[in-house]
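This section describes the prediction task in plain terms. A model, or a person checking by hand, is given the sequence of a single protein chain and must write out its three-dimensional structure as a string of C-alpha cells. No templates, partner chains or ligands are provided. The sample shown here is typical of the held-out split.
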Amino acid sequence: MSRTSVALGLTLSSLSMVLAAGTARAQGVATPTPPPAAAPAPVRYSPTPATAPVPATPVPSPVAATPAQSKAECPATAGDPSARGAALDPNLDRGFLLATAMTQPAGSLTYSNYELLLHGITYGITDRAQASLTILPPYVKDMPFVGIFSLKGRIVSTARLQLASQISVTFAKDSSDSATAGSLGLLASACLSEGCESLLSASATWMWGSGTQALLYGGSLLVKVSEFAKLVAEVVSAAGGSDFEQAPLALLNYGVRFHSARFAGDIGLIRPVGDDVSGEFVLGFPFVSFSYRAL
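The expected answer:
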C-alpha cells in the first residue's frame, strides 16, 4: 500500500470521528424552551365612555354703577318708569316754553338758558320733585330785574301717565317800583315710549298779580327720532281779565332738540298765529335754548 493511500485513509478516519463527536454533542445539549407569553388583560365593557370633567365657566360678578352712571345711563326702574327719559334729556321737564310733568333726577343740578337772556338753575330734590330759579338780569339801563322761583312735584307716576303740579312766584323790580305775582299749574304728560323719552303733554296755569289774572294753557309733543335727537312741536295760548277773555293770538312753536345725558339744546321757530298777525310771519322768529347738567 502506498503512502498516499495510507494518508487518505487517516484523513477520512479523522473526519469521520470529528463528525461523529459533533453529532453526539449536538444531541446531548438541550435547547431551552422560551417561557409562555403573558395572557392579555381582559377588556371590561363600559356603556358610557369616560370623559374628563369640564371645568365650570366662571360668572363675572356684577359691577356696581357709579353715581354718575346711575343718574345719566341707567335704565328706568320699576319704582320710577320715567327715570330713563329724564336721565338722558336735561330738557325733558319742558317743551319749548311750556313745562311738562317730568322732573329732573334726584341730586342733579342743571343750568338752563333761553335766548341767551334768561338764566335758570334747577335742582332735583327727589326723582319726583324739583326746585327752579330763573332770572332776567337788567342788561340795559332802566330794564327791570325779574326773578321766578318755582316748585314742581309729580303726584302720579306710571309707565304711561305723569301728573304734576307746579307753583311759582315771580318778582320784578326796576329803579322805581316792584311787583310780585304768583301762579299755580296742573301738568299732564302721556308717555309715548318706554322710559317716557317721547311725550305728549298738556298744561293749564292760573296766574294772578297786580289786580289781574290770566290762564296760560297749551300742549307740546316730543318725538324721539334717534338716540340723540327729538322733534318738538308746541301750541301756547292764553285767556285773561275778569272773565278770562281769549287772547287774539296763539304761538305755534316747532323745531328740533339735540341731547345727551349732560347737554340738551332746542333750535326752532316761534310763529304767532291769529287774525291780528295773519300774514305777518312766514316762518316765525328764531328760538334757541340749552341746558347743561352739572351733577
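For orientation: The radius of gyration is 49 Å.
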